[in-house]
Amino acid sequence: MAIERTLSIIKPDAVKKGVIGAIIARFESEGLRIAAVRKVHLSLREAQGFYAVHSARGFFGELTEFMSSGPCVAIVLEGENAIAKNREIMGATNPANAAEGTLRKLYADSVGENAVHGSDAPETAAVEIAYFFRGTELH
Ligand code: ADP
Ligand code: MG
After folding, report:
1. For 8, 53, 107, 134, which has the most beta carbons within 10 A of its beta carbon?
2. Residue 117: how many CA atoms within 13 Å on its side-chain side?
3. Which residues, 6 or more positions from 134, have their beta carbon under 8 angstroms from its beta carbon?
4. How far is the CA of 118 from the centre of ligand 2 (A)?
5. pTM here?
6. Are 49 and 131 within 8 A, CB to CB?
7. 117 is catalytic
8. Rounded mean pLDDT of 79-90?
9. Which residue's CA is the nearest one to ligand 1's atom 25?
């Protein structure tokens, strides 16, 4: 298996709940290394840029307002199969469908406010990591 990097975001709802530490501890306990981490408060424009792929979706306004409503934590995770592994730890987009023990089952309240983001493929991971971090910030 290849060593990959992926972008995780602890979304504003989870930051407000005070579970930044719990989520980061979970990543580490699952064998994912923290290559970079930063707390950021996205502007509406920055949230729109990050989620541009979803701009035609009906939930785009709701999503980008939520993502710019408070600080979030951007994290680069590194490890074997990191992209799929992170998606597994996160659980399904809608917490109602998320498996027991996943981050979204544990911490998310709705399909919109669902605690964490995770890149879905190597190409999107590269673009998303570069949206938040310079190459020299990854260690
Ligand atoms: P994921 O984050 O699991 O990759 P998507 O890429 O499909 O899910 O959607 C991006 C984000 O948009 C979701 O995490 C969620 O915050 C929001 N979202 C997705 N579907 C809906 C929906 N039906 N209603 C409101 N928000 C949604
Ligand atoms: Mg997605």
Report:
1. 8
2. 27
3. none
4. 7
5. 0.98
6. yes
7. yes
8. 98
9. 112
Q: What is the pLDDT at residue 1?
A: 72
Is the model's pLDDT at 91 over the cut of 90?
yes
Q: Which of 63, 64, 68, 87 to mutate to test the pocket of ligand 1 (most atoms within 8 A of CB)?
A: 63
Q: Tell me what pLDDT residue 47 has.
A: 98
* Ligand 1, pocket-test mutation among 8, 9, 55, 114, most atoms within 8 A of CB: 114
Phi, psi (deg, nearest 5) at residue 135: -55, -35
List the residue whose alpha carbon is closest to atom 8 of ligand 1: 93
How distant, in Å, are the alpha carbons of 54, 55, 58, 117, 128 from that of 51? 6, 7, 13, 11, 10
Tokens describing residue 34? 């923290």
